[in-house]
Amino acid sequence: MAKLRIGFIGCGGIANQKHFPGMAQQSEFVDMVAFCDLIIERAEEAKAKYGTPDAKTYTDYHDLLADPTIDAVHVLTPNVAHCEISVAALEAGKNVLCEKPMAATEADAKKMLEARDRTGKLLTIGYQYRHFPVNRVAKSVVDSGMLGDIYYAEAAYLRYRGVPTWGVFTDKSKQGGGPLIDIGTHALDLTLFLMQNYDVEYVVGTSFEKLGTLLNPNEQGQTHPFTGEPMGWDNKTFEVEDSAFGHIKMKNGAVINLKASWAINMTPEAGGNNEATAVLVGTKGGLDTLSQQVRVNHVVCSQPSVTTVGNKIPPYIPGFSQGPAPVSVEAKYWVEALMGKRELFVKADEAYVVTRILDSIYQSSKSGKPVYFD
Ligand SMILES: NC(=O)c1ccc[n+]([C@@H]2O[C@H](COP(=O)([O-])OP(=O)(O)OC[C@H]3O[C@@H](n4cnc5c(N)ncnc54)[C@H](O)[C@@H]3O)[C@@H](O)[C@H]2O)c1
Q1: Could you tell me the pTM of the whole model?
Q2: Which fold has domain 141-323+353-372?
Q3: Nearest CA to ligand 1 atom 7
Q4: pLDDT of 358 over the 90 cut
Q5: Which atom, in ligand 1's list, is nearest to the CA of 185?
Q6: Distance CA 102, CA 357 (A)
Q7: Ligand 1 centroid from CA 168, angstroms
Q8: Under DSSP, is residue 74 helix (H, G, I), strand (E, B) or coil?
Q9: Is 30 helix (H, G, I), strand (E, B) or coil?
């Protein structure tokens, strides 16, 4: 079988952290043949490091999509461009792995689903937290039935001080929002995936613009109290929310509380632990991943007990991921789906519900009213 030919649109942070090394590990099956970035040096650098000798570079993604030999593209640009580029790629006959969030708005995400259905091509979204070892173990616990009927959940991704200082993350016109759409999206995807419940009744939420514009830790020379690292962002160009909280009522009666922040006065113990976490509560037991271990509370021999499941979970490495595993698993599963050997692991329809909920929280925050799903 000929190798798959892959193109990349956007050669910035996530491309270099995840997509290039992940796909390089799949070199038995794929060739990395096209790199596009508005900043051509980034595309050239990526080509030199990862590309085939005849790989091409572009600044206009339309030119990359015009190459009929390319089988699939990764869309790795800021959020607002996800829809336009993914739809164009699907229409050009490419399979698409788009970064999270699927889109900046529900309307855009819907256009992407429609393009997928129209073209019959594959569309998936880069929710790699599902592959973290701790979350894989959590999924096995849920699937085993140990928790019973899950009726309450908390999805959280909270940082004491952790505003992304590269790229355009605080530019509303390019990202569509702040921590809710940036990291809350991971926690919500993970929690819905663990619960396997995508049937929403209504959403209500509030977003805050407090510390993002108030503080300027750069000027104040502050260091992080828990890690000691310098921290800072420019509060004068900060245009998005710094925290957002949502309440999601599902059609089966279950509720989920979602919490997301880049800057909040919460210690790691209180939840400001800089990771996507889930708490699930069921009729037979509860589960949480707050300490990056799967803790199950349940009754054993009539005794209320707490069990840590999965002694073999690799040690937690603070930062982007728990070692290389999630990066390689996402790439491996994607390539296997491209080769027709498995179904997509992250279904675009699931990612659509995540984007619809996030969009509804922003809407509800503006209107002060719940947003009902049909
Ligand atoms: N899965 C994750 O955990 C994770 C982590 C970080 C970022 N992301 C997502 O990845 C996306 C990119 O984030 P990033 O951190 O890599 O940002 P970045 O700013 O580092 O990189 C984005 C790159 O896209 C380029 N670009 C912008 N518009 C373009 C266009 N029209 N055509 C071609 N290139 C274009 C920019 O020049 C830049 O080099 C965002 O949607 C973000 O939410 C996901």
Answers
A1: 0.95
A2: Dihydrodipicolinate Reductase; domain 2 (3.30.360)
A3: 14
A4: yes
A5: 43
A6: 12
A7: 8
A8: strand
A9: strand
